[in-house]
Model the fold of this input.
Amino acid sequence: MNRLEEFLQENGLALIGKLSKGWTSEVFLVQDSEGRTLVLKALRDKSNRRDMVAREAGNLKLANSVGVGPRIVKADTGANVVAMEYIDGVPFSEWLGTNPPKNVLNAFIDELYSQAKRLDGIGLDHGQLAGRGHNILVRNGLPVIIDFEKASTRRKCHNVKVLDSFIFRSQNSAVVKKIREILGDEVPRIKTD
Ligand SMILES: Nc1ncnc2c1ncn2[C@@H]1O[C@H](COP(=O)(O)OP(=O)(O)O)[C@@H](O)[C@H]1O
Ligand SMILES: [Mg+2]
Done:
């Protein structure tokens, strides 16, 4: 039995499926003894980022302290596994492609900025908010920021700044284009204050 199987057994968890396989980690869907669905992020055997779990767990706890991110349930640095709340949502980029109405998109953006400000407030730089938009899930029209593995309290903190460019400013960005299409072409609000 490997460490992951041991972790599942010790915690009364049943494996339901796999959500993703990245370079460093695999993400599984599991069910606990009360029937709750949880997500497990497990370090891959071949990865040499041995500190992944400690970092993800520590940063996620910090984010949770300001109401950001999936709620952490358990971290096991021996088994190299973090258990957290399952977010039943879709990646931001996919959601944006469904043409959310203006008022819904505005509410989403306001909440995303509020979360980014709270992270800036505690000095936790996420580090991977932009890009393909896969670290922002959308559940019931609202954002849940995931993947705190590369987050840091040591770097200069610029979550709001990164979002500003990702959502409103990046040149030749499909995201920016789509958002302007929905919200109209007026100069976007500057939210970095
Ligand atoms: N708490 C969660 N709820 C639902 N899906 C999740 C959750 N955490 C991760 N995922 C899914 O697994 C994928 C990979 O997780 P992520 O933490 O971003 O790992 P990686 O470091 O491999 O990018 C995400 O893009 C998302 O689809
Ligand atoms: Mg990710």
Observations:
- The chain has a mean pLDDT of 94.
- The domain at 90-183 is CATH 1.10.510.10 (Transferase(Phosphotransferase); domain 1).
- The first strand starts at residue 14 and ends at 21.
